[in-house]
Amino acid sequence: MSEPISQSEFTKLKQDLARLEGEARAKTRIYKRLHALGKSLNETLEVEQVHTIAARFATEELGFEKCLIFQHDDSNGWFRIVQAVGYQNPTEQRVLKIINLLLSGEVVEYLRVSGKAIIHTQEEPNHMVEKLTNSLFLSECTLELFGGDVEMPFGLIIAGNGFHEPERFSRIGTDSMRMLALGNFIVQLSNSTNNIIFYKAWHAEKQYLEENILRRTEEITAQKQTFEAIYKTSKDGIAIIDVETSAFLDANQAYLDMTRFSYDELLYTSNIKLCVEADRARTRLAIQEVVEQGYIKNFIQTSLTRDGTPIITTMSIALMSDTSKMLASVKDITVQKELERSLTAEKQRAESAAQAKSMFLANMSHEIRTPMNAIIGMTHLALKTDLDNKQRNYVYKANHAAASLLGILNDILDFSKIEAGKMALECTPFRLEDVLEHLENLLSFKAEEKGIHFSIHTDAAVPTALIGDPLRLGQILINLGNNAIKFTNMGGKVDIRVQLEKTSNTQALLHFLIQDTGIGMTEEQQARLFQSFSQADNSTTRKFGGTGLGLAICKSLSELMSGHIWTESQPGAGSTFHVTLAMLIQQGQASPRRSEQVADSAQVAINLASLTGRRVLLVEDNALNQEVASDILTDYGMQVGIANHGQEALDILKDQTFDCVLMDCQMPVMDGCTTTREIRKQARFQSLPIIAMTANSMNGDKDKILAVGMNDYIAKPIDIANLIDTLVKWVNVQQPDSNRASQPDKTLPSTNTIDLPDLPGIDTAKGLAQVGGKMNRYRKYLGVFLEDNQDFASKLGHALQQQDLELAHRLTHTLKSNAAGLGMTELHQTALHLENVYQTALDNSDELKEALISQLQTVLQGLHSLFEQHDT
Q1: According to DSSP H, which parts of 487-622 are helical?
Q2: Tally of CB atoms within 10 A around 226
């Protein structure tokens, strides 16, 4: 027999049985609750509701003190707390608000990769989460992911107990039944969360599709109604055509009205049969293109109406969804085509009128400039003769009046170019100082004559090495300056200022101010100031004269130069004209001043002397112009042959040799352009300089002249300085001295009245030949050379002291050229060698420099002796 148990053992067994029964009941209750939750966690719930159920189950049913649920935020990758149960302490609540977990962090990464929960207890701490659990005020806990997938879990649940009396709650790790129940619940939580997410997505997609279907149905219905409304009410004809037979299957009322057919008459009639015969092949090709490409636009077809009247239509045809049909939109453009034909005819008439206007202006220019050339040329020559004071006054005023008339003609031609949009601007490097210097030379004398104080000021900040059109800039400033002087009385002032508005590395905006103390203007007068053929008022026209074109041209030119012009004025208080112009700034080494480019007076004299004895053929039909040009040329020592027209010029060139041809353009028998082409056909005349002299100065004339083979262009009336400069440029460059007379011109009186002694360093025979054998002229040039080079040594020494390579090079270059033209052979050679040295450096030049100075001193001493003897 077994021994009876003791009372204490019985009591213990009874307690164990009661505990087991309690655990069994708790287990049954928990699993019943799990079963109930499994049924209730369905897709109709919101995710937030599931989170609340999970947190309460972990704390209320399983007996853990605290539960946290984190949800992953797709926008930033963090897990943020969305549910916290068991945190009543305000401090704990504040801390929880700032706690987030990163998806790529160590804890979440471990849970994601391992697929297991992390358990942390005081007895068996997990160092990976120890810091985190302390931050969450947990002494023990379990962490597990739920929902989503391995790569992107939906959330994280943490259940556990705090640091205060953890034994009052279910223990992590030791209460296996509740830990198992928690694991089962998290599985249900994951499944429920995924089901809810999937259901929400499916439901949203379903709703989206249903809404789309409803919307598209409504749109199709609306489109059908719209199409029917357009089809019925459109003013354009609309028809449905069978692709295979081209027969009309339907047509709206507008198409019936257009073709004058009834609906029954048009139905099943072929569209091709309604075309005129000439368009039927094109129409078949158009239908084939619609079949291949799906549509065709603006197909023009001439069709016949019911009564046989042809109408011109434009059709846009598209293949319908039922590819056996085409939809055609048809518009009657018969009236439009008639209007286009009318407009084309009007345009042709307008172009003919514009061409006639251009021809008229060209002819007017030629007809006016031809007699003006004679007037200006003859008066110029007359002023060089012996006249008494009264005669000189008359001739001077006639010359001045002709020049004024030329200015008016130039204004009219400029205005015509601007009006026709043919005004072309140059884009060339220039120096602003040269433009202002020319302006001052022109205006200062006029101002002095009227007793007006005149000045020009340029701010230091203004860049002066520019790129643009200096001629047109000068034209604007001269016009405004002339006006200021014209309308200012004696004792007044005219000031011109140049300021810098703004600048960049490549461009500058310059502000020109032309200010006077003249009569001023009212606001009404200023409002029409820049209109063509307009002045301030009629009395101004009578008192001061003028065409009223100058300011209109200034305005157009300033706008062409990306600028602006305006005025400020008050009656009796003077006016200020403002002009802003955009100019490019030269990059690198600036272009030299005009004064730096022009040789000294001796070089100018040498250039002029180089024309002596040259043979020039003047091709000109006007007798007066022949006389003027011939006298000017012979006055400069040239020999002149004359041809009355182009054919005569060709005949002369067969037997005679010339250094240059001056060619008029408009002549009888054969004009200048045709003559030039004939000359250029002969190989021996390929390098013969041919320079146009014409009164035509419309835009495009110069291009036409150069295109036929002429070398350059001189406008009539002839500017004598320009004529001589052009001849020097082409004759000296293109023609060797072999064509030139080596003896004095026998047609001119001899001036060899004084013999020259031997001059050291100078080949006087060679120098005399350079000026055509004219002794007086040669002596004059030698005197100029002496005067200009007295201080050459000091100038060169100063340049070397300042290390000014450019100045040293320019000084030796000028001396070289002058010496060559006057027969100073040795000096010329030494200057040439030194000039080559100064092209690159100032070093290693002392020996050459001393030789040059020595040779120059020898020449200057001989010239001193020559002129001292002559003076005594």
Answers
A1: 523-527, 538-544, 550-560, 594-597, 601-609
A2: 11
